[in-house]
Automatic annotation (TrEMBL):
CDD domains: ASS
Top-level lineage group: Bacteria
PROSITE patterns according to UniProt: ARGININOSUCCIN_SYN_1, ARGININOSUCCIN_SYN_2
A GO biological-process term: L-arginine biosynthetic process
Pathway given in the UniProt record: Amino-acid biosynthesis; L-arginine biosynthesis; L-arginine from L-ornithine and carbamoyl phosphate: step 2/3
Protein name as it appears in the record: Argininosuccinate synthase
Name of the encoding gene: argG
Organism classification: Bacteria, Bacillati, Actinomycetota, Actinomycetes, Streptosporangiales
Entry coiled-coil feature ranges: none
Enzyme Commission designation: 6.3.4.5
Annotated L-aspartate binding sites: 119, 123-124
UniProt keywords, alphabetically: Amino-acid biosynthesis, Arginine biosynthesis, ATP-binding, Cytoplasm, Ligase, Nucleotide-binding
Length: 399
């Protein structure tokens, strides 16, 4: 029986070369699966044809832009997902979506293996293979770059030898991954962490230091997810796409960080995530208005763990599913509107209103009409500090 490999296909050099390479190395038929996560670039039909021209027996293209926005980016908003309190999980969110469609294609085309283009140094190999293990434990995984020490110069030479219909160049020093939620750039001169990013690195964002008029907008949320911009009801994809343009034009969402990879090394990454940073800022502030104090305190630890699980490739894990149930309950009252000012690389909340608000003006005001009974505070403070006071008396006595 001929082996059949389902390949996560991007249309670039590495995955295009993987088609004839896997056919030669394994004697296998290759089915290419390309998933549109809003990364832009080439037409998906052109990518499908390239896969066939490179030797794939079948090529599938999936328009998953709305699915990615609704089922992956929106849950990240509800979880305030920022790995290491900064990174909005740009690549990590797209991988389980791709895995889902790889597993479906393997079932449809009777695949025995799934292949991806990840190296042994990165997080994505874990995200692909842990996800596939959860969805279809019978599938075997192969990674040419990792399993066969496949380097870029070897890939270029192989492509030229085979006459593959792709443009090859060894001049681009960067590794770039992008989708609707953001863009990640690494390698090249960035590997020296003293080197500052240069303006040519950026694509989703304009230079925030250039003087320009601010952009102000109002985001409407329901159950913790955005549903409208300036009163216009939009789909999840449309909301993120519009905010990428508007926040990106103001230079919002640039990040330069050294992060802790799952494989145990530290890596320098430059990110652009204009919509993600703007939406997370708005959502966090609406939670401040609508979520009760102890629930909010506990949710912060849940949010952190949710982000770590997704970063670590455990989207399909039982713990992540259980945390989702908690988060859904915590979002029941996260409804209302947030006014955002986008300017100078920042997304700043300037107004908030909600029918589910826990903010009571009459309790909060210091003016006449204050309904807060301050006479109750004296006894409360004494009781609140009593355990520490008793301990202090004891410690003095012992000393």
């Amino acid at each position: 029986m001929t082996e059949r490999v389902v390949l996560a296909y991007s249309g670039g050099l590495d995955t295009s070369v993987a088609i004839p390479f896997l056919a030669d190395k394994m004697g296998a038929e290759v089915v290419a699966v390309a998933v549109d996560c809003g990364q832009g670039g080439e037409d998906m039909d052109a990518i499908r044809q390239r896969a066939l021209d490179c030797g794939a027996v079948e090529a599938v293209v999936v328009d998953a832009r709305e699915e990615f926005a609704k089922d992956f980016c929106f849950p990240a908003i509800r979880a305030n997902a920022l790995y290491m309190d900064r990174y909005p999980l740009v690549s990590a969110l797209s991988r389980p979506l791709i895995v889902k469609h790889l597993a479906a294609a393997a079932s449809e085309f009777k695949g025995t293996h799934v292949a991806h283009g990840c190296t042994g140094k990165g997080n994505d190999q874990v995200r692909f293979e842990a996800g596939l293990a959860a969805l279809n434990p019978e599938l075997k995984c192969v990674a040419p770059a990792r399993d066969y020490a496949w380097t870029r110069d070897k890939a270029i030479a192989f492509a030229e030898e085979k006459g593959l219909p792709i443009e090859v160049s060894d001049k681009n020093p960067y590794s770039i991954d992008q989708n609707l939620w953001g863009r990640a750039v690494e390698t090249g001169f960035l590997e020296d962490i003293w080197n500052a990013p240069i303006e040519d690195l950026y694509s989703y964002t304009s230079d925030p230091s250039v003087p320009r008029e601010a952009d102000e907008l109002v985001l409407t949320f329901a159950d913790g997810v955005p549903v409208a911009i300036d009163g216009r009801k939009l789909t999840p994809f449309q909301i993120i796409d519009e905010l990428n343009k508007r926040a990106g034009a103001q230079g919002v969402g640039r990040l330069d960080m050294v992060e802790d990879r799952l494989v145990g090394i530290k890596s320098r990454e430059v990110y652009e995530a204009p919509a993600a940073i703007a939406l997370l800022a708005a959502h966090q502030e609406l939670e401040n208005v609508t979520v009760e104090r102890d629930l909010a305190r506990f949710k912060r630890s849940v949010d952190q763990r949710w982000g770590e699980l997704v970063y670590d490739g455990l989207w399909f894990s039982p713990l992540k599913d259980a945390l989702e149930a908690f988060i859904a309950e915590a979002q029941a009252h996260v409804n209302g509107e947030i006014r955002l000012n986008l300017h100078g690389g920042r997304a700043v909340v300037t107004g908030r209103r909600s029918g589910s608000s826990l903010y009571d003006y009459d309790l909060a005001t210091y003016d006449t009409g204050d309904t807060f009974d301050q006479s109750l505070a004296k006894g409360f403070v004494e009781l609140w500090g009593l355990p520490s006071k008793i301990a202090a008396v004891r410690d003095r006595k012992d000393a």
